[in-house]
Amino acid sequence: MTQWKELGRARDYLQNQAVHCQLCGKILPRRAWVVSEEGCELVFCDSDCERLYREYWLPRYRTATS
Amino acid sequence: MPADPIELTLLHNRLTSICRQMGVAMMKTAYSPVFNEGFDFVCALFDPHGRMIAQAEYNPSMLGAAHHTVHWVLEEVGAQTFQPGDVWIHNDPYRGGCHLPEHMLIKGLFHGGQLSGFAATIGHIAEIGGKAVGALAGDATDIYQEGLRLPPVKLMDRGEHVMDIWKILLTNHRTPKLTWGDLHAMLGSLHIAETQWQELLAGRDIESTLRDTEELMSRSEAWMRREIAAIPAGEYRFEDWMENDGITNEPRALRVAVTVRNGEIIADFTGTDRQTRGPINATYAVTAAATYNAVFHLTDPQIPRNAGCNRPIHIIAPPGSMVNVTHPAPEIGGNSETHCRIIGIVMGALAQAVPERAAAADGASGCNFLFGGVHPDTGEFYANYHFENVGWGAASWHDGNDSQCAPLAISRNVPVEVFETRYPLLTRSFRLLTDSGGAGRHRGGLGTERIFEVRAPEITVSALFDRMQIPPWGLSGGLPGGTTSISIRLAGEKEFRLFTDAFHTVSPSKFTNILVHQGDCIRIVSSGGGGYGSPTGRDPRQVADDVLDRYVSPERAREVYGAGSLKTSPAVPGEGIP
Fold it and tell me: CB neighbours of B12 closer than 8 A, spacing ≥ 6?
């Protein structure tokens, strides 16, 4: 399942931790494109980053990270 | 109905013209040399969604970053909160910014009461507090030492100064008058944009204008995709090294794998070293801007520069690495030094695919020299951010440019006359440095040598250089360019010495707050560009001209180019004074 989700991080000045896009690494200010998969939530900038994650990142790095 | 290409071209030129006028206003009214002489700023227009629709040819490092910085501000504060006359300020690297001195001001453009777009400027505020006078602390270990950090906050509220914010800014910057003047130059620039935007829309309706800007972005994207599709598909890797981070004297690797496929480019920086304790870390916005810059160098320069041409370029920058720093690590050198090197590695990777279009490495250091103190003539505190130009890399069709701002910016260096009028530093000499250009069939551009003499009881100086040990690489058999250096000859001494020797700094290229005194001389050498092609392939007549012009010494001509006995031109009056 995929959906836009509010992170609320941008307005939260009480914490310094950031949420990064799973693919490109950019800090996400407020909204994220969230993909629920096999019990995990993957967070992306948008559907384009999700596309590249599947087309480029997974084939290249899945073995290394699994 | 398809948009008329002539109408679209006229609109593109008009929007670009607005951005250029914004820049002229800024240049003519700013107080700091880094603005009015150095052009260290950018001006751009955005649509109501925050997508860049036009820009002028100012600082490309800020232009690439503006795409991300504006997006952050609109996401955080919401476009709907903008009212006519509101201006927001923002410089936070951990909220989409590039590095701390780059302050963005953004203003909504209204037409008929409706928000129809945004104008934004980013400018380098030369003094922002923090541990180093003039910012760019070369030995900072967290962002809190680097200066005042501003999340998006309102600087102007419906045309009125938000004095609480101004008071905080002016109190924390060491040179408040300059901050006041430079920020008002930026406000003036936004006012120009607002006025010109109204004039533009007086002759056309807003819906069709925004539709046409959408079309302009689509055409730029399609044009860029065609350009990328013409590059041979494949994966190209390259790496280069930052020689130290100012805290420990160890080199750090920057690595990229550039994949070209289906009209897209993926610049994957996985494998780059972890972020450092010292301030050479880049934010995501910096890495993105540097990547766009390298690709723009290798594709058609006529592509209208808007958000469309960025779309086919993807960046993968692992968080916590030198190309995507995470809080609270320092980052101020990431935009001045590491930025140059990121452009270089993307260029170096793509040079394997299109060597005929690429250039060898440029000098790739801002040679940032920061200084300040109490001026003996006025009694006022001054501070300045000074950078040097470098030699550019040679390409397949020409020698590298001499003494030009590193490709991250289009900045000019400050004329000696302006410099000496404002600061108690006398320029004893300033010249192109013989043999600093990498040898090759096409020679790398020359770096420079500048010698300042201190003309005040004391001045506090800092430096943030790189390329002092690892020279700019040559391409296709060309040789490396010359390296940078900063050294001091204390009053009464005969020889220049590195700061590690004279002041026991950890790094020879990155240090903070060293007190120098009347009569001391500081020598700054900027790096040259790498050469292209084997030096033995260079036309002997060009080698002879280079020797005559003192670009190349007779010894180097003989040893590297295989030339016979050649002579330089006679010495010029005053030569050798320092």
Answer: B54, B216, B304
What residues have CB less than 8 Å from B5, skipping those under 6 apart? none
pLDDT at B344 over 90: yes
> What Å distances lie between residue B168 and B184, B242, B349, CA to CA?
16, 35, 45
Cα separation, B55 vs B120, whole angstroms:
10
Q: Which residue type sits at A46?
A: D
Q: Among all residues of chain A, which has the CA nearest to that of B321?
A: A25
Do residues B273 and B311 make contact, with C-beta atoms less than 8 angstroms apart? no
Greater pLDDT, B345 or A29 = B345
Whether A25 sits inside 8 A of B319 (CB atoms) is yes
pLDDT score recorded for residue B420 = 94
pLDDT band at A66 (very low <50, low <70, confident <90, very high): very low
d(CA B158, CA B425): 43
- CB of B535 within 8 A of CB of B440? yes
The predicted-structure confidence for B190-206, as pLDDT tens digits, reads as follows 999 999 999 999 988 99
pLDDT digits (tens, 9 = 90+) for B395-424: 999 999 999 999 888 888 889 998 899 999
User: How many CB pairs (< 8 A) connect A and B?
Assistant: 54
Phi, psi of A62 (to 5 degrees): -60, -45
Q: What is the average per-residue pLDDT within B61-80? A: 90
Which DSSP state fits B390? B
Query: Which among A17, A18, A30 is the nearest to B75, CB-wise?
Result: A30
User: Which of A11, A18, A24 has the CB atom closest to B316's CB atom?
Assistant: A24
Distance CA B92, CA B346 (A): 26
- Mutual orientation of helices B60-77 and B284-298 as an angle, nearest 10°? 140
Which residue type sits at B50? G
Give the model's pLDDT for residue A16: 84
Alpha carbon distances (Å) from B527 to B144, B254, B361, B443, B469: 31, 19, 10, 14, 11
A18 neighbors B151 (Cβ within 8 angstroms)? no
Using the Cβ of A57 and the Cβ atoms of chain B, whether some distance falls under 8 Å is answered with yes
Angle at B525 between CA B559 and CA B477, to 5 degrees: 40
Nearest to A23 among B71, B259, B316 (CB): B316
Give residue-wise pLDDT tens across range B236-278: 999 999 999 999 989 999 999 999 999 999 999 999 999 999 9
The helix/strand/coil state of B221 is helix
Nearest-neighbour CA in chain A from B172: distance (Å): 21
- The side-by-side arrangement of strands in the sheet containing B485-489 is B425-432, B448-454, B521-525, B485-489, B497-498
User: B34 vs A38, B93, B330, CA distance in Å?
Assistant: 53, 20, 22
Q: What share of chain B is helix, strand, coil (3-state, %, to 5)?
A: 30, 25, 45
pTM reported for the whole predicted model: 0.96
Tell me whether the omega of the peptide bond preceding residue B328 falls within 30 degrees of 0, making it cis.
yes
Looking up tokens 């036309």, which residue turns up?
A: B539
To the nearest whole number, what is the mean pLDDT of chain B?
95
Tell me which residue has tokens 């795409």: B67
What's the CA gap between B402 and B446, in Å, rounded? 5
Residue B62 — very low, low, confident or very high, per pLDDT cuts 50/70/90? Answer: confident
How confident is residue B64, by pLDDT bands cut at 50, 70 and 90? confident
